[in-house]
């Protein structure tokens, strides 16, 4: 599904640092400024997408993100603000939504598209990128194609922008892996998706699937990986180099490290639930990186999340920060329309290297 933004001057709210030591300043509601013109897009395979997308993992996930159906009205506002400011890439998955809310993220996304309160022509340029889980019962190409058809039915659309394999099974079920690849080929050949991509693929498997798809006339459009100032290890940088050399667009998920790069949390102020356990292990070792983020954010009159997201953009990736509130959407949009200098990029990367802790690697990522 694809929708085109037709607005005269995209705007967003900006956050500026106050003179106090609080590094998460309030949004100045009345200050608006142009971010980037809607026609400034980047190429991703056959598609033109915004330099940043929005991730929708939280739209239906109760366990990690505390989703409640009462949040839907604000999520609709989040979507409207994003689209009115030129965002046209939304990442989801058939597994986003827990328990009885299975597939809720896909359902909400299409509901919001249909109920969008702006220019209706915008609906023709929205790119939905959804991921199909490599569940153990999806053993044949036909079963994987049926997963794609289920998403199409759930969203009541005829074609998905980017159909992605959510993770590789090479480490534990290599025979299933080949069937899933053939499923990607089939859904592309049948016109069920405009392009195909992968998620959580390490450098070796990424090269293998690229060559396999290429031999069957299917271009690999994108590779989605955990990529941020907390996840810039050897594998991540090798994946980035492979993507650059092969014309694959790298989509960076968790650009804020699940919230650790927001400046909102500290060892004495942790989020509730499973994230709190992870933050307890990693946050105490992030002082050099967080100090660099704070210094640059103050100097640039940006917020810490805006600096962290902008780093991903400057590295040539498309970040997809998760959003579940209007405040987060407005703040994330402030990552657009400017760029860190080469010295600032180096300062941040040195801060990351000096921090002894890094984000724990996704267990589903292959080598």
Automatic annotation (TrEMBL):
Keywords: NADP, Oxidoreductase. It comes from the Eukaryota. PROSITE patterns: ALDOKETO_REDUCTASE_2. GO terms for molecular function: oxidoreductase activity. Coiled coil: none annotated. Residues 51-348 form the NADP-dependent oxidoreductase domain. The keyword Oxidoreductase applies. InterPro entries: AKR, Aldo-Keto_reductase, Aldo/ket_reductase_CS, NAD(P)_OxRdtase_dom_sf, NADP_OxRdtase_dom. Pfam families: Aldo_ket_red (PF00248). The keyword GTP-binding does not apply. This is Pyridoxal reductase. It comes from Abeliophyllum distichum.
């Amino acid at each position: 599904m694809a929708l085109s933004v037709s607005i005269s001057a995209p705007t967003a709210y900006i956050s500026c640092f106050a003179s106090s030591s609080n590094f998460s300043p309030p949004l100045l509601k009345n200050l608006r400024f142009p971010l980037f013109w809607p026609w400034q897009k980047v190429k991703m395979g056959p598609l033109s997408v915004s330099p940043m997308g929005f991730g929708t993992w939280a739209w239906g996930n109760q366990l990690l993100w505390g989703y409640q159906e009462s949040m839907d009205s604000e999520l609709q506002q989040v979507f409207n603000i994003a689209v009115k400011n030129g965002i046209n890439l939304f990442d989801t998955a058939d597994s986003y939504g827990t328990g009885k809310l299975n597939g809720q993220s896909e359902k909400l996304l299409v509901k919001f598209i249909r109920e969008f309160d702006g220019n209706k022509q915008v609906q023709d340029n929205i790119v939905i990128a959804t991921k199909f889980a490599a569940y153990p019962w999806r053993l044949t190409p036909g079963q994987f194609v049926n997963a794609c058809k289920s998403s199409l039915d759930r969203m009541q659309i005829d074609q998905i922008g980017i159909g992605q394999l959510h993770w590789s099974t090479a480490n534990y079920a290599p025979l299933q892996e080949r069937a899933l690849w053939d499923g990607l080929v089939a859904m592309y050949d049948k016109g069920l998706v405009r392009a195909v991509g992968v998620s959580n693929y390490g450098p070796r498997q990424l090269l293998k699937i690229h060559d396999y798809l290429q031999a069957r006339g299917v271009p690999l459009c994108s590779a989605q990986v955990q990529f941020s100032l907390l996840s810039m290890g050897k594998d991540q940088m090798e994946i980035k180099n492979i993507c650059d050399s092969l014309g694959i667009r790298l989509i960076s998920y968790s650009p804020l490290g699940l919230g650790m790069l927001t400046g909102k949390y500290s060892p004495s102020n942790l989020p509730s639930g499973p994230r709190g356990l992870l933050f307890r292990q990693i946050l105490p070792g992030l002082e050099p990186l967080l100090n660099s983020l704070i210094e640059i954010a103050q100097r640039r009159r940006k917020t810490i999340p805006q600096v962290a997201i902008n780093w991903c953009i400057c590295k040539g990736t498309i970040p997809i920060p998760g959003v579940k509130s209007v405040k987060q959407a407005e703040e994330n949009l402030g990552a657009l329309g400017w760029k860190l200098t080469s010295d600032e990029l180096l300062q941040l990367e040195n801060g990351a290297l000096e921090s002894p802790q890094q984000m724990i690697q996704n267990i589903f990522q292959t080598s």
